[in-house]
Each structure stands twice: as structure tokens, then as C-alpha cells.
């Protein structure tokens, strides 16, 4: 009997202790205290370090204002462009959060962002900080051309420049394209803006398979001015690609200088330049202050024969799935 009583006394004591612990847990703060952010912004670097403090925080989540969203109490961010950025930190608590933000002034950017290609494409004006180049179609011979890739590797871009393609087309561009403006913004987001006005031009083959046409199936080689297009929000970048090997080399004409290798414009989020087609990357053939020549993938959809008579396609040189490329010449709006 005494043993049982002693046993019950021990169990009761343990229960009281557990209850006291639970009560203490319930009283623990669940909302982090105010967030205090400190930043170390060097005068000669575009890499900024950050530290956050908040009582009772179990995690820190950042928005560095440049697209980066790291986690941790100590983080760092890389800023391509000089300028002001709003940096926010959220302190995560057990059941609630608190946050604060600061504004930093980055004094230097990534030097490569301001290279000759980016500056010419964007028309960046350092006095205003604005990108002032707006690229447009012109109604003149040699504006748009299509050419098969006979005898060259099936890589779309990696083949020598052949300027003869510019003589393949006359000035017969649909008037719906003539009000288009394309802008490469040199800013923190590297925005690409497709302001296509009334309608956007779509390659006939891709318009057919996507159903992006209005008055019946497009005729073979008859491109479509599509009024239902919505330009996505997009960013841009230019990649420099070295020559493939000693026998297959290429150069790019940048402001009259032949630069070794290829320069390819990458557009994100499915955005297009000039004509919606198979791809969203554009090899720069020649770039000056006033004119932009590019080449891009215009390969035919593999299911094109579901929409057109296969014999008609083959006789027109538009075999489904065949690799093809197109050439586009844009001029800077005056």
C-alpha cells in the first residue's frame, strides 16, 4: 500500500511539472519583435551584405529588391545596376511574422552590364538613367527574310553570316507591324517591352497550329497580324558565345567592328521580337546605333501536316519539322 501511494505521488508530481512547462510554453512570445536591418554597402563594389535582428525570430526571409530572395540572418546580394533599391526582411515567428524595409544606394554596378552591346541595344543615356532606343520595323526591301539552313549544322545560330538573305524580300510587311516598338531597358529588372500597337505579327505556320488567326487558315508563307496577342512581362540578356571550333567560326558586326564569337539575345517568359515564331532567342548579326539585324529559329512545327496538305507543304519547301531560320532587320525610332 505504501509502495502504491509513493508511486501515485511521483506520477502526480510529474504531471504537475508537465503542466507547468506547458503553461510556460503558452506564455512564450509568438510574434517576433521589431526587425532591425543593417547593410554594408561598399563604395567600390556591387555586392552588398545584410544582417537582421528580431527577438523570437526562427527564420529570416529577404527581398533584396534585385530579384533575389535569400533566407538567413546574414545574406548578401549582387546588384547589376547602380541606383536605389528597397530591401525588405520578414522575420518568421512561431505563429506570426514581422517585417521592415530599408532603402540602399548602390554606387557601382556590374561593369559588364554597361558593355557596348547592351548600351547600343538599350540606347542607355547615363545623364537621365533611361533606355532611349525604341526599335521598329521599316517598310523597305530587306527588312524580313527567310532562309533554309542548307549545308550548315542544325544549331540555328552557329553558322557563318550570309547577308544575301537580306535581298530575298521586298517591302511588303503587313502595315500592322509598322507601329510596333521594342525596347530593351537597362535597369535593375532588365525589362524587355513589346509595344506592338494594334496587332502583332505571327509566323503563318505557328499561327496555324496555335489557332492564332482570324479569317480562316493562313495561306502558306502568309504571316498573320494577330490582334489577340498579349505581350508577357519579360526580361532580356545578351550572351556571348565563343566559336565552336577552328573550322566553324563566326563573327558579329558591332558598330562596324567584327567581334569574334556570337552574341545572342535571350528573352524570358516566351516573349518575342518582331515576329512570333519557333524560338525566343535571337542571334545578333549586326548592331549599330541605328540598325539591328538578327537571325532566329523559324523551324516548322512537326504537326503542320495536320492543318495543310502535306504535298502542298513539301512543294512549297515547308516540310513539317524541317529546321529553318528567319532574318529580321529593325531600325531605331527617330
Q: How are the secondary structure elements laid out?
A:
Layout: H1 2-27, E1 36-40, E2 47-53, E3 59-63, E4 74-78, E5 83-92, E6 97-106, H2 116-122, E7 124-125, E8 130-131, E9 135-136, E10 144-148, E11 181-184, E12 191-195, E13 200-202, H3 204-210, E14 224-226, E15 234-241, E16 251-254, E17 257-260, E18 262-267, E19 275-276, E20 281-287, E21 291-297, H4 310-315, E22 324-332
Parallel strand pairs: 13-19, 16-20
Antiparallel strand pairs: 1-2, 2-4, 3-5, 5-6, 7-8, 9-22, 10-22, 11-12, 12-15, 13-14, 15-18, 16-17, 18-20, 20-21, 21-22
Structural features, described:
The chain has 334 residues and is an alpha+beta fold. It has 2 domains: 36-109, Immunoglobulin-like, CATH 2.60.40.10; 114-332, no CATH class. Helix content is 14%, strand content 34%. The protein is built from 4 helices and 22 strands. The strands form 5 sheets. Strands 9, 10, 11, 12, 15, 16, 17, 18, 20, 21 and 22 form an 11-stranded mixed beta sheet that branches. It has a 3-stranded antiparallel beta sheet with strand order 1-2-4, with no helix packed on it. A 3-stranded antiparallel beta sheet has the order 3-5-6, with no helix packed on it. A hairpin with a 4-residue loop joins strand 5 (83-92) and strand 6 (97-106). It is elongated and about 75 Å long. It starts with a helix and ends with a strand. The model is unreliable at 5-15 and 20-25 (pLDDT under 50).
Main attributes?
334 residues, alpha+beta, Immunoglobulin-like, 2 domains, 11-stranded mixed sheet, 3-stranded antiparallel sheet, elongated
What is the alpha-carbon Rg in Å? 30 Å
Count of separate DSSP helical elements: 4
Number of strands: 22
Order of helices and strands: HEEEEEEHEEEEEEEHEEEEEEEEHE
The amount of helix comes to 10-25%
User: Which structural category fits the helices and strands?
Assistant: alpha+beta
Low-confidence stretches: 5-15, 20-25
Quick one: overall form? Answer: elongated
- What would you call the quaternary organization? single chain
The overall number of domains is 2
Task: State which percent range the strand residues make up.
Answer: 25-35%
State the separation between the terminal residues, measured CA to CA. 104 Å
Task: Please give the largest β-sheet.
Answer: 11 strands, mixed
Mean pLDDT: 83
